[in-house]
């Protein structure tokens, strides 16, 4: 009966030893990364099973419009999940608030307590680059299993992304209108007729 526990402890011990050799001066959560890779692989296998069970076929070549739509939606949803204040309750068990980090975004640090899985999840939920792999996988799977709903959701996320860039452009124009003229732009009062 004790053999599985001993094997688990042995695997954990070996993984910890590998981690110490891999990054002797840093605490890298290799077992947490392995756990997240296992979850991602299980999700991909579940998707493949659903595709097979529903009789759907994979596209021979994704449409360029779908690639663009999913790319922009992936960018937005990844930033929404990992940086925006409104989703901070989802990240709170794995991160610590450090302060604002720009327009509607937060700077959070990964919690050092709670083990390697918590640390790895903390990195995932606070890193838009890390999260984008998961989001792109989900949206791509959605295009196969529920294309209309996925395109609709991706369209909304893309519209928000375009709106964000327009907000930044508008703010930049407004700042430009409100700045005092540069020295070379100032008119000599003697020449202005004043």
TrEMBL record:
The chain crosses the membrane at residues 30-51. Keywords: Membrane, Transmembrane, Transmembrane helix. It comes from the Bacteria. This is DUF1360 domain-containing protein. It holds the Pfam family DUF1360.
